[in-house]
């Protein structure tokens, strides 16, 4: 019988002790977060309004914001405001839930965003065959393949979203020579 080690941590200690190196949130959606809580302003302002609420550990050093809705790629000044902050980096890519919104124009804006010095990855891209997604498998695969070619062109690492599509995702990654 295989035994699993249950990982645990002391939350208070995590929040209050200084660690070196610190912590980076490698997958967040600042745009979704700001919209959900009706925040208008900078990420620094958002963080300062949450002080004392035990939200950010002392050793928190920043985040990589994932911009995955294709229609936001062309809002250049909007996402550049996020990236103007010292502790925010970005990943851009069309999430499979938005596959039908990824056209030639959006691809052009994606290419532009990938050239920004603080864009560190292409994603969140992939396949989602769950009941949460109403786009055809074929369309998702086409959009996924297009973005994999772009990632190779720009030499960017990937942020993959794969739900109920493991075999197809692996096969497409192999086909594109990522695996």
Description:
This protein has 179 residues and is an alpha/beta fold. It has one domain: Metal-dependent hydrolases (TIM Barrel, Alpha-Beta Barrel). It has 7 helices and 5 strands, in the order H-E-H-H-E-H-E-H-E-H-E-H. Helix 6 (137-154) packs parallel to helix 7 (166-175). The two termini are 32 Å apart.
* Main sheet makeup: 5 strands, parallel
CATH C-level name: Alpha Beta
| Helix run count | 7
The count of DSSP E runs of length 2 or more, i.e. the number of strands, is 5
Euclidean distance between termini CA atoms: 32 Å
CATH architecture: Alpha-Beta Barrel
| Rg estimate, integer Å | 18 Å
**What is the helical fraction, as a range of percent?**
25-40%
How many structural domains can be distinguished in the coordinates? Answer: 1
